[in-house]
Design goal:
By secondary structure, this protein is of the alpha/beta class. Helix content is about 45%, strand content about 15%. It has 7 helices and 5 strands; from the N terminus they run H-H-E-H-E-H-E-H-E-H-E-H. The protein has helices at about 1-5, 10-25, 35-45, 55-60, 70-75, 95-110, 120-125, and strands at about 30-35, 45-50, 65-70, 90, 115. Strands 1-5-4-2-3 form a 5-stranded parallel beta sheet. Strand 2, helix 4 and strand 3 (about 65-70) form a beta-alpha-beta unit. The longest helix is centred in the first third of the chain and has 19 residues, at about 10-25. It is elongated. The model has no long low-confidence stretch (mean pLDDT about 85). InterPro entries: GlpE_sulfurtransferase, Rhodanese-like_dom, Rhodanese-like_dom_sf. This is Rhodanese-like domain-containing protein. Keywords: Membrane, Transmembrane, Transmembrane helix.
Length: about 130
């Protein structure tokens, strides 16, 4: 106990840095699906693919049949997806960070079955799966 009191500054730095490392792991990220799971969902049908990257990124390569709605426009263009409320929606971006934000927006709008592609298009391409241009 004397050590902790004598070195309170160092102990507080250790506790704060440990908390900062754990914080991202404790945040809810929504439902994620691996590339294999997304492929299986696509093969079953009744899946809508939403790419939330910018139009320039989308033009460089995307999943076949993916609908491009940039994350910045998603809240205002959510009505375009109303017909898909009873379908599974898979949201993707380049690495998965924007897709996590998009899944939260869609779930708040009443979409029940929403997944984000874990690792994004980068993971899709690393798995050797096809993209369209």
């Amino acid at each position: 106990m004397k050590f902790i009191i004598d070195n309170i500054f160092i102990v507080s730095i250790v506790v704060l840095s440990g908390g900062a490392l754990l914080w991202p792991a404790l945040l809810p990220r929504g439902k994620r699906a691996s590339t294999l799971q997304v492929t299986q969902l696509m093969n079953r049908g009744k899946t809508v693919l939403v790419d939330v990257r910018d139009a320039e990124e989308f033009a460089k390569g995307h999943l076949r049949d993916a609908k491009n709605i940039p994350l910045a426009d998603l809240a205002s263009r959510i009505a375009e997806l109303d017909k898909a409320k009873n379908k599974t929606i898979v949201v993707m971006c380049q690495t998965g960070a924007r897709a996590d934000k998009a899944t939260k927006i869609l779930e708040a709008a009443g979409f029940a079955d929403v997944f984000s592609l874990d690792g994004g298009l980068t993971a899709w391409q690393a798995a050797g799966l096809p993209t369209a241009k």
